[in-house]
Amino acid sequence: MQRRHLILGGAAVFGLGTLSLAANAQETADALEIPDMVLGAADAPVEIIEYASFTCPHCATFHAEVLPQLKADYIDTGKVRLIYREVYFDRFGLWGSMIARCGGEARYFDIANLFYEKQREWTASGDPVIIIAELRKLAKTTGMTDEALDACMSDANMAQRLVSWYQTNAERDDIRSTPSFVIDGENNANIPYARFREIIDAKVAG
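The structure assignment produced for this chain is given below.
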């Protein structure tokens, strides 16, 4: 998915107000404290940073068709460390991120994969009220409670920090489309599994 402007002009939590995105030193510092979600060994020889949006169809395709192969062949075998970073094209993607992160690192990828698997269903209406209800319903199938979801989704400070974090990452790594993959510092737009194999094998071989 390509967007000319990656930086959001505003993001509403529950659609009940707009977050100011005016940058300042404190927001930048807070943004740097947002933890990355990681698959793979810390000492893996190859690092891949995936930039993706929960509302991006191409990202959903990657998570359904490419990531399982990448995980089996390279992540689970200790050759690749995958860092997942969210991109926010819209408030729906931001909501998905807040809910997935609400489950903590242990549940994060289960919730994220569920959001991608059911993407067409929960985005279909375009209605913010229905979308937030559908996201919550999916998250609850992984064991999250209404109380936990309420607490996470009412945290406007976290929403602001996530947007600042996203802006900082996207600008630094020059992310212009999703999914994008920064492989050992080199930016690659959406690529097929065969290309991943080619790049990773060459790097592992030295």
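Interim note for the steering committee: The longest helix spans residues 57-75. Confidence is low (pLDDT under 50) at residues 3-25.
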